[in-house]
Design brief:
133 residues, Arc Repressor Mutant, subunit A
Length: 133
Amino acid sequence: MSDKSRKKWESWQEILSKSKSPSKANINWELLGIQPTDGEGLFENNLEHVLRFYIVLDRAWRNPFSLKGRFAREGALHVAICASEGFITNKISEDVWGKEWTITPEGIAFKEGLDNVLKDSCGDFEHDTNTLH
């Protein structure tokens, strides 16, 4: 660990040790230099974000993806939110973690809810083949 990294880590530890507990509510993230992501619209009726969450969860369900792979990097914000909310995990068992994101039971339930939102927004995707040109 470089001196710069060590000093940064030590300053974080000092700030965290002064917190009442290490829960999200008691940590002043801005003191650590961590700026919040603008979450405006992420959980509202924004079809783009609904689709992105759905894609992450569907992929984790059908074909678990690498923690550091292209899919995880390109969808980093939505992957991080899904992981933080407990919808995906890389935990295999107690004290054992894997190298892939997989869907959790909570993620399956959330994905089913997104299925309904998408059906309401876009229909059942059934089409009349006679109308195609």
